[in-house]
Amino acid sequence: MIRTILLATACACMLAAAPADAAEETTQSFETGLIPSPHIFLPEGEVKGTVMLISDAAGWGDYEKAEADRLVAEGAVVIGVDFPSYIQALSRYDVSLNDGCVYMVSDIESLSQQVQRATGNNAYHLPIVAGIGEGGALALAIAAQTPDATIGQTLAVNPAAGIPLAKELCTPASKQVVGERTVYGLSDGVLPDPIITVFTPDANKDGRAHAEALKKAHDEIEIRDSTDDAQTAFADTLDDLVTASGAFGNPLGLPLAVLEATPAFDTMAVIYSGDGGWRDIDKEVGGTLQKEGIPVVGVDSLHYFWKERKPEETAADLSKIIDFYRKQWKVKHVLLVGYSFGADVVPATYQLLKPAEKSAVAQLSLLSLSHEVDYVISVLGWLGQKTEGAGGDPVGDLKNIDPKLVQCIYGKDDDDDVACPALKDSGAEVIELPGDHHFDENYDLLTKTIIDGLKRRLQD
């Protein structure tokens, strides 16, 4: 339900002693899920990062407020969470409503998007989840259930071992009950986001042992030692993470995932993700194409279309991507792929490409195409966001494209809005696969279908 975030109240003596640059909590309302009455602070001007600041066992107090003030002054959005209240809310949650387990990440992601949309900022920053002591322990537990491209960074300073929550978290990671606490490992494979743990001389020995056990399974985890007190170590590390949160790490300065491969088909792929960003189906299809010898540039739609783009701007950026990476990988052809939101923007974007880049496209693979195209991400709960379908119908855009280039793939059990069946008499390749909007996660079959179509078109 939608909760109203109220301005914090304090006694007159505290107000008199408050610093002149003390941040005020926003009075805007957001859908917060299981997070009870978070303390939300918005900076003035450009947003440089977003921090979910989890308190220690004593709850949200003077230290947390002072840290929020400092971060907001530096340009960060702060979502403050009172640890005791949050644990109580999670303990009361009826897990029968969610497959018998507690899932925190969806609330964190949704709230982060709502709050950042409220700032009007042009870029979306994945939230940094950070805390000291019990807050750090909870941050590590959240990492145990985090999917890719959802949390930007996890920071735990002097974390305890495990969390005081009897109800099970939704995660395949290992878990061990120790007294009244549950200690979670991390899911197998690559970390969903970078994790840093910092230990000062006052650190909990069990917490350090837990961090070292996590590092044995995931060597990417950083364990740092500091001679400072926990608050100083926390602030210094967090400053660096906020500063780095907006960097994309590629020459084009765009939110791209670049998957290198030795080209086997004289072809590279550009994949526009769904509105959730570069994860799940987009990442899996990209990874399989990479294994098959097709280097991939993934465009993270959540970040790229966080601000509204013009179709011409989108096409200009795609031209830059194609031009730069064709030269880097020395390939002739381009496979242009889009999933869901990403599929909807591909037809009009292709039409607006420069002739040189347009002629290089050998195949357009549109996965779960709909009848509505937008050039900005719509955020749940953001009232007044009325852009759905503002860019028209992708099927209309496809009428001006050679149907021999087009491959439209949809799931048999997808909803009625799926647009691929409307192309059956157009000359385009229309393929129905088993499954729903996500093809029942049979990404191997989906990728094989894409590659089979590409091979045929390259031979023609």
List key phrases describing it.
Rossmann fold, 460 residues, 19% strand, 7-stranded mixed beta sheet, elongated, 2 domains, single chain, alpha/beta
How is this fold's topology laid out?
Layout: E1 2-4, H1 12-17, E2 29-31, E3 39-41, E4 49-54, H2 62-73, E5 76-81, H3 83-92, H4 105-119, E6 128-132, H5 134-143, E7 153-157, E8 175-178, E9 181-184, E10 195-199, H6 205-217, E11 222-225, H7 230-244, E12 256-259, E13 267-272, H8 281-291, E14 296-299, H9 301-304, H10 311-329, E15 333-339, H11 341-351, H12 355-360, E16 361-367, H13 394-398, E17 406-411, E18 429-433, H14 443-459
Parallel strand pairs: 4-5, 4-6, 6-7, 7-10, 10-11, 13-14, 13-15, 15-16, 16-17, 17-18
Antiparallel strand pairs: 1-2, 3-5, 8-9, 12-14
Report mean pLDDT, rounded to a whole number: 93
Q: State the end-to-end distance.
A: 56 Å
Low-confidence stretches: 1-20, 381-387
Could you say which structural class the secondary elements and strand pairing correspond to?
Answer: alpha/beta
Q: Count helical runs.
A: 14
CATH topology of the largest domain: Rossmann fold
- DSSP helix fraction: 25-40%
Judging by the overall fold, what is the CATH architecture of the largest domain?
Answer: 3-Layer(aba) Sandwich
Return Rg in Å.
24 Å
Number of strands: 18
Number of domains: 2
Look at the structure and give the CATH class of the largest domain. Answer: Alpha Beta
Strand order of the largest sheet: 3-5-4-6-7-10-11
The major pleated sheet works out as: 7 strands, mixed
User: Could you name the CATH homologous superfamily of the largest domain?
Assistant: Alpha/Beta hydrolase fold, catalytic domain
